[in-house]
Amino acid sequence: MNTQTYLNNFLTELHERNAAQKVFLQAVEEVVRTLSPVLDQNPTYIKEKILERIVEPERIIAFRVPWRDDKGEIHVNRGFRVQFNSALGPYKGGIRFHSSVTADSLKFLAFEQTFKNSLTTLPLGGGKGGSDFDTRGKSDTEVMRFCHAFIDELYHHIGYHTDIPAGDLGCGSREIGYMFGQYKKLTNDFTGAFTGKKPNWGGSLLRPQATGYGVAYFAQNMLTTKEDDLKGKVCVVSGAGNVGIYTMEKLTELGAKVVGFMDYDGSIYDKDGINEEKLAFLKELVFKRRGSVKEYAAKFPQAQFRPGQKTWDIPCDCAFPTACENELTGTDAKLLLKNGCTLVCEGSNMPSTPDAVEAFHQAGILYSPGKASNAGGVAVSGLEMTQNSMRVYWTAEEVDAYLKRIMSSIHESCLTYASQFATQGDYVAGANIAGFLKVADSMIDQGLV
Ligand code: GLU
């Protein structure tokens, strides 16, 4: 059977077995389609049924999370942890708290995480967890009660050498603090079983900034291949959360001009560009007051608030999706290209729909998938684990130097593997192939488990 027939059969069966899991199927399909030259050269992966094994999570834990709100009323949410692949190390990946969370969305995120973690060069397996609990509009005590209830079950399944959760959408250092506290109480053990901790109790400096800074470093690396850099580039991001804000901060530091960003309520177009003072306001607004970007336009009147609108119609040189999956459609992609955008560097996981990706490839612009360009967050989580094991704290400069090195090495891997398998300059193929080979070879080494 030739590789193409094998892949078609594989995908048909994958669809049959996971019929309702749309985003998971999308993520797997995107990876598998780029692996055909690898399978052609190494039929062992077909014989060992690596694809069939790599798309099946090692374990999915699903549980009930009952908690009481401030009025004493009972609520029941669903909790999950998808322990996807431990070939390279203990399961590692964030916890997402958002009403959209389902077993399907976490399966997709854990699959992506496996490849992303492989790219970081660190010994990390892939996992992801979360709940359909929405932190928006909840008081601190409600969030605490929920997080404690979530850990009351999850603590059985995680641990320093087993599975190390961190934050993701809706889960920042406040939530990690409550989860870590309950985990410590139940196990009577102060360990690095979570990352994204605050520095006073075991966290790494620069972990909050790491994903966003890493995205900007990756974009800088991409531009270097064209003998260009970020100086003077007009940029837009999407989500103004943790990833978005620190992407904007580093882009600005590197000389770019960020003119657009957004949240659930709408987007901001600030043609003068963000600066240190505006960033400080935005951080206070988002991280401390958990307010809406609407207030930015009230504070800085030259900025325009556009209710319910995304940022992709704003003319820019470089675009950075930093919100969530499938946030950038084929129509958005065409608009970006029409307005002269020449680089798209993903800060969120699978933000571009398949037709958007196709449009970027057709146009031949610089385009990098999230699993490569947003790996800085989990990479610094890996560094947090190392510091915890050594019982030391590194300075921000030390962590930043590691982060820069890791982002450059991921960038280089993407290009090396892309050219080795005849897909020169294709960051999607390069990231998928580099991530896949390390996991696949390790699975073969460890036998049929
Ligand atoms: N949630 C982040 C990601 O998507 C970070 C995961 C981690 O630090 O474990 O990569």
Tell me what the structure shows.
This protein has helices spanning 3-17, 22-33, 36-41, 44-47, 50-54, 103-119, 140-154, 173-187, 207-224, 242-253, 276-288, 294-299, 330-338, 354-363, 370-373, 376-390, 396-420, 427-445; strands at 59-68, 74-85, 91-97, 126-131, 163-166, 234-239, 257-262, 266-269, 304-307, 318-320, 343-345, 366-368. By secondary structure, the chain is α/β, with parallel strands linked by helices. The protein folds into 3 domains: 3-54, no CATH class; 59-189, Leucine Dehydrogenase, chain A, domain 1 (Rossmann fold), CATH 3.40.50.10860; 208-373, 3-Layer(aba) Sandwich (Rossmann fold), CATH 3.40.50.720. It has a 7-stranded mixed beta sheet with strand order 9-8-7-6-10-11-12, with helices on both faces. Strands 1-2-4-3-5 form a 5-stranded mixed beta sheet. Strand 1 and strand 2 (74-85) form a beta hairpin. Helix 1 (3-17) packs antiparallel against helix 2 and helix 13 (330-338) packs parallel to helix 14. The longest helix has 25 residues, at 396-420. The structure holds glutamic acid. Glutamic acid binds at residues 92-94, 166, 168, 195, 349, 377-378, 381.
Oligomer: single chain
Structural class by helix and strand composition: alpha/beta
Q: Element order, helices and strands?
A: HHHHHEEEHEHEHHEHEEHHEEHEHEHHHH
Task: Point out poorly predicted stretches.
Answer: none
Architecture per CATH nomenclature, i.e. the level-2 architecture of the largest domain: 3-Layer(aba) Sandwich
Give the cofactors and ligands.
Answer: glutamic acid
Number of domains: 3
Helix proportion of residues, in percent?
A: 40-55%
Count of helical regions: 18
Rounded to an integer, what's the Rg over CA atoms? 21 Å
Name of the top-level CATH class of the largest domain: Alpha Beta
Shape: globular
Strand content: 15-25%
Q: Tally the beta strands.
A: 12
The separation of the N and C termini measures 26 Å
Could you report the average pLDDT, rounded to the nearest whole number? Answer: 97
Largest sheet: 7 strands, mixed
Name the CATH superfamily classification of the largest domain: NAD(P)-binding Rossmann-like Domain
